[in-house]
Fold:
Amino acid sequence: MTLAQRHSKILQRIQSHTKSGKRSAELIAVSKLQPIEKIVEIHALGQQKFGENYAQELSEKAEALGHLDIYWVFIGHIQSNKIRKIVTHAQEIQTVASFSHAQQIARHAKDLGKAPFPIMLEVNAGDEASKSGSPLKEIKTLALQIVQELPELQLNGLMAIPPDSFSDSNYSTVPPLYHELRALADEIGLGLLSLGMSNDLSIALDAGSDMVRIGTAVFGSRDS
Ligand SMILES: *Cc1c(COP(=O)(O)O)cnc(C)c1O
Structure:
């Protein structure tokens, strides 16, 4: 399949899973470790939002593609010393997991004239030691503190990367964890949920995710 065919197939899957009366989920094309030419090609098909995981790669791509109206979403692990670079080049950060990072994003956003800056809180949905994100039980407190103390941020909702065992091939109905994440997202900021990757796209859409982050199913393998 060509890049255009894969992109169109994912858009069709998103459309067909959309429950009647609900607006369609938005596609974030995850372009980390993918070449710039592929981003240009997919952007030309009307794709505007792209996800990147590494501050340096984001800044290089955003600068090289500055002539295109791309909306860059940062979805990688945040390091304090990279926050200014990320806020400079991204239009949104979905991986905020501490108040300290939120404060720094707020400060740079104000400084760079980008306030109110859209963010999401990343939840460590499976409480896995190997994954980043804030524990489920601490999310609401963090959300409240951000809304009350950081007007330079716009808290859009919740982002999650569930354990790898949650895949479309293992589930025919939506697992409880996904319903839990949907319900929790409703209580965070504007109530949006960013859930669903190449492997769990269908269950995430069935659970009512508002945006899905798809890398390999659109771009192909990151190694090639
Ligand atoms: C890499 C990545 C994705 C995309 O993963 P695929 O399996 O390639 O679809 C989505 N979200 C985050 C946070 C990622 O790091």
Notes: The chain has one domain: 3-219. The domain at 3-219 is CATH 3.20.20.10 (TIM Barrel). The first helix runs from residue 3 to 17.
